[in-house]
Amino acid sequence: MKIHYFQRYQQKENVATANTMLLLSRLYQYSPDKFFRFLKAESDAFEPEVTFTLQEKNESSVPDATITQESFKVVVETKRSDKFDLNQLVNHLAAFDDQKYKRLVTLAPIPMSESMKKLVEAEISKHKKASGEKFGIVHVNMTFKELADAVQDVLDDHDYDMQEVLDDYIDYCRHDNLIVEQDSWKYLRMRLCGTTFDFNKKSGLYYDKAEHGFRPHDYLGLYKNKSIRAIGKICARIVAWEESGKMRYQPEFGECTKEHMDTIVEAIKDGKNYGYDLAAEKHRYFFVDQFVETDFRKVTPYAPMGARIFDLTDVLGADSLPDVQEIAKALSTKTWS
Questions:
Q1: CATH topology of domain 182-336
Q2: For residue 157, what pLDDT is reported?
């Protein structure tokens, strides 16, 4: 059974806030440097981390060394929709004191309307004039998806433990409809393939335990020997398992055809060659129309330890995507790290 880091089944704003704070606290415990990089990425001219300085001059002396951290405060308001209360946000402004860096973060599944943003900015400006504060408050509006993406951006391939925490947070957000995926069409999910690569490529499928969460994606890539060697567009997604000596099939996307069921049975047989008992528990089978060969090479040392998501519009520098053959051809000219 998969262990979850974030509680589910209570669709309340305070649960969403608590889970988000747990994610960020886990990131800080894991790496203060990566936590501060996350904070800095969401707002310009924000330098909250500890600094070490030698021979720093002041008006009357030159100490051998100083250790400083500029004061900062982040106030978070979470909603399960974009319906923020302006009066509530105005009242939140009083939560700030004389910190140098002040951030009011509004977090919701979808972006705040531009008209509401303008009202918030106007109130912040009025507050600064009335209070005479030296440093102003910066409003940062984020979606849960943008927050998750920002955390993802500061993690490296070897941050296995923290990546597992982030994956469960994303799974929680999707479970509670806090991340509304409408752009799966542009995402490629890379999956590691070793001994099963030839079977996966030939049969046009990849399988994983059904309990594992995943971010919606239309494209699947098979990784082997420092490169994504084949990609395909997903045409069906089926959960299958054996129960009372009979195979059960639960289609999640696309059709569950006889050909798909036969291929799943072949995958179960093939898996036994490598010590896998796929029928013993629920597995999710991703089918593609066809795996097309490519060579999207990783240029940094060490193989990744898990899945990875690529935004193909960013990788290819395009607003729309061509067919799979052209995508595979274009990826062969690209690298990643």
A1: 2.30.130
A2: 74
| Ordered DSSP codes for 62-77 | --SEEEE---EEEEEE
- Joined together, the tokens standing for residue 52 give 């070490």
User: Distance from CA of residue 213 to its chain's centroid?
Assistant: 12
Tell me the residue type at 17: T
Q: What is the DSSP string of 212-234?
A: S-----SEEEEEETTEEEEEEEE
Domain parsing of the chain, residue ranges: 13-146, 182-336
Cα 244 to Cα 72, 79, 241, distances in angstroms: 60, 45, 10
Residue 247 backbone dihedrals phi, psi, to 5 degrees: -75, 135
**Sign of the torsion formed by the C-alpha atoms of 319, 323, 324 and 326:** negative
What lies within 8 Å, CB to CB, of 72 at 6+ separation is 39, 46, 48, 99, 100, 101, 102, 103
Per-residue pLDDT at 229: 96
Distance CA 189, CA 310 (A): 6
Length of the chain: 337
Burial, 279: exposed, middle or buried (Cβ in 10 Å; 0-12, 13-18, 19+)? buried
187 by DSSP, 3-state: which?
strand
User: What is the pTM for the complete model shown?
Assistant: 0.61
Express each pLDDT in 92-128 by its tens digit: 999 988 888 889 999 999 899 899 999 999 999 999 8
CA separation for the pair 298, 225 (Å, rounded): 9
- Give the list of residues 6+ apart from residue 191 with CB closer than 8 angstroms, or none: 206, 208, 220, 221, 222, 223, 307
